[in-house]
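== Folding the chain ==

***
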Amino acid sequence: MRRFYDPQPFALDTPTELGADASHHIARVLRMAVGDEISLFNGDGGEWSARISAISKKSVTAIPYAHSHDDRSAPWPVTVALPMIKGERMDYAIQKATELGATAFQLLLTERTDVRLDGERLEKKCRHWQQVAISACEQCGLNRVPTILPPLPLTTFVQHTDADLKLIAHPGEQPLAPAQLRAASSLALLTGPEGGLTEGELTAAQDAGFIAFALGNRVLRAETAPVALLAALWTMADLSLSQDPSTTQ
């Protein structure tokens, strides 16, 4: 089934007029027809199997007929702290990190951040990036949409995040041990901008409890780093859980 996000409540056997975005995508982009089956999710967890019952010029109506409680979220909630990147590379980072289970994206301003937005331009970009995350969820099967949080200075973010395990990716550091993930119930992952973090920013993060680690001996691009690091973290998390004697397989 085609999957669509619509942030409204659904109920079994109750005709529901879908929102403008979902309706436009179904009727005008995909040109679906009455009787076609679709999958709907509203971000609260789970998803609904539904059937299109009506299509008009401005809206689509669907009737949910089954609900699944499947939650395909990552093992732990993880906030990706991501400096703004130029052009479509930011879209790539948000899209792929969403597919890999990011719970939220905290946009950052760092000393070497080249992208500086404010006012309407910033609001427009945040709406665009939120839609990138929604589309990624529709494609990959996630039922909870990550939030795009407005930019904060890096020093403000590191001082106020309260994740159980706070990580900062930095070349030249030691790898992260899988056992370090075992006790965590939430994660914050901080990656650098295109020019890298300054020594002062790295020190500020470490003073705030962030653990610096590296993934191999290569320097990753700003848009590649959060994606590769999330994939590595979930692999380590699976390994950590499999080695935990208290975990029942």
User: Anything to note?
Assistant: The longest helix spans residues 119-140. The chain is about 30% helix and 25% strand.
